[in-house]
Model the fold of this input.
Amino acid sequence: MLEKEEQFDMEKVIENFEALTKDAESVQKETLRKILEDNASAEYLQNLGLSGRTDPDSFKACVPLVIHKDLEPYIQRTIDGDASSILTGKPITAMSLSSGTTQGKPKFVPWNDELFDTTLQIYQTSFAFRNRQFPIENGKVLNFIYSSKQCTTKGGLIAGTATTNLFRDPRYKSSMKAIQSQYSSPDEVIFGSDFHQSLYCHLLCGLIFREEIQWVGSTFAHSIVHAFRFFEQAWEELCADIREGVLTSRIVDPSIRAAMAKLLKPDPQEADLIYSKCVGLSNWYGLIPELFPNAKYVYGIMTGSMEPYLKKLRHYAGKLPLVTADYGSSEGWIAANINPKVPPECATYAVLPQIGYFEFIPLTQMEKTEGEPAMFCKDPQPVGLTEVKVGEEYEIVITNPAGLYRYRLGDVVKVTGFHNSTPELKFVRRSSLLLTINIDKNTEKDLQLAVEAAAKVLADDKVEVVDFTSQVDLSTEPGHYVIFWEISGEASEQVLTQCCNCLDKSFVDAGYVSARKVRWIGDLELRVVRKGTFQKILDHFLELGGAVSQFKTPRCVGPANVRVLQILNENVVENYRSTAFN
Ligand code: AMP
Done:
C-alpha cells in the first residue's frame, strides 16, 4: 500500500479532479451505476423493485427519500449480527457512530472500505490544492486528533466514530504520510484511553518537535481552540517537563508514559526559550506561530457550527492563515476545499462527483410546508448535482457506497457557483436546528448571529463567550428562548442585562419579532453557566462513545437531551430576562 501511496502525485490529482468535474453529470451517472450494481443483491434494493436498473430516473422512481430513523431497523439487524446482504452487497463489518450532538445520542451508520477510499480521495484532492498555495516541507504536523473507543456490538461488528474507524485502519498512517501528514504525536497519544492525557501530550509532542511543525490543526476548529485554551493553563507544567525531561505525574496511562519517555530529553535551554516566548505574548495573541515558527497555516473544519470559534482561533493564529478543511459526515464525504486562501467565513466546498451520488432538495419547496420544520416536507422533489442553481439553498441527499440510498443528511447548503460543472457549496446550517415556539423560526445561523452581536457588548467588559447553546422553554406560558452562555471572566450585571436585551433584539425573524411584541413569546432569558460547564457536556458526549475530534457543541438542546439540559441547569450561576420588548 505504501508503495502505491508514495507515488501520490499532486498535479495528477488536480488533473484528475479537473477532468471529473468537467464531466460531473456523467460521472454522477457512472457513480450511481456502480453503487447500484455492487449492491444489487442487497435486500433493501431488491425489495424496491429496481430489477437491475441503474439509471437515475429509475432510481428516483423506485427508491424513497429516507432519514436515519427509516433505516434503523435494517441497521439494527446488522448490528445484531445478521450477516446477510441487507443494505449492501458485501456484508457490513463496521459501524460509525455519528456525533449525535444534536439529538443527544450517537447514531450508527455503516462504514466500509469504499468509504475509506473516498476519504483518501477527498484528503488528497484538498491537500493537492492546499499545497499549491501553501507548500509545506517534509516535516511534521501537530494534529489534535483523538480516537474514541472502538467497541464490538453484540453481533460482533466493530463500532467507533467515523474518525476512529479511519485512524484505526492500518492503511491510514501510510496514506497520510504520503500526503505529508506525519503526526508529531505517537499513536499511544492519539489512541490514549483518556482525552485529557492525550491533549496534554499532543501539546508536549508539538513543543518537542516545534521547529518541524508544518501546520497545526484538528478535525474541527473547536478542538484547536480547546487545546490552546488548555495550553494557557498548562504551559508552565509543559515547560517543566521539557526542562527536566520527565513527564508530569498527571499522565498515568502507562502506554502514553512509555511512548513519551522515548521522546523527552532534558532540555533546559529549550524550556527557557518556550517560557520566555509565552511570557512575552500579550494575552496569548499569536501563540501558534510563536511556538511553531515554521507552521504555514492552521487547519480544520471552520465553517457552520465552528464559526463561533474563529475569533479566538484567529487570536491564537496571529498572522497565520486559517484554512478550513473539507465537508463531509459520518455518512460520507461530500466536497473539498479547493480554494484554501479564502477565509473560512467565505469558504465554499467543491463536490467530488465520483465519491457518491448527490441530490438536492430546494429549500423553497420545504418552506412551502406551513408551520412544519423543513425535515417534514411532504413530497420534496430533489434535483441532480448539475441541476442546482447558483444562489439557491438546498438540503443535501446522499447515496453512498456503504448502504445509504437517498439519505437526507439534514444539512442546508447554498450553491455559490460552479467549478467546471460541479457545484461549489457554502455550508449554511443543520436543517433541524430550529428555535421555534409558534410562528417564529430561528436557525442555528440566526442564533450564531445573535450571540455574535451580544458578544460585542460583552467585550466592553473584556470578557468573551467561551461557548453557548440554547433551548426553547415551554414550561412557562408563554414559552420563551433560553440562551446559555459560558463566559471567560466576570461581567457586570449591567453589561449582562444589555447582552440579554441585545440577544432578544438580534433575532430579526419577522415571526419572532411580531410574536414577541404581542407576547406570544415570553422574554428571552440569558443563563450564565459556571466555567467548565461545556467541558462537562463534552465529557458526557465522550462517555456515550463519541470522540473529541468529532465533537460539535449542540446549539439547541431539545427536551430529549435530558442529561445535557441537566448539566446546563445545574451549573447556572446567574440569569437575566430581557426587557427589550417591554
Ligand atoms: P459527524 O457525522 O458527526 O461527523 O458530523 C457531520 C456533520 O458535521 C455534517 O453533517 C455537518 O453538519 C457538519 N460538518 C461537516 N463538515 C463541515 C464543514 N466543512 N462545514 C460545516 N459543517 C460541517
In short: Residues 225 and 313 are 6 Å apart (CA to CA). The chain is about 40% helix and 20% strand. The pocket of adenosine monophosphate is lined by residues 98-99, 162, 301, 303-304, 327-330, 409, 411, 427, 430, 550 (CB under 6 Å).
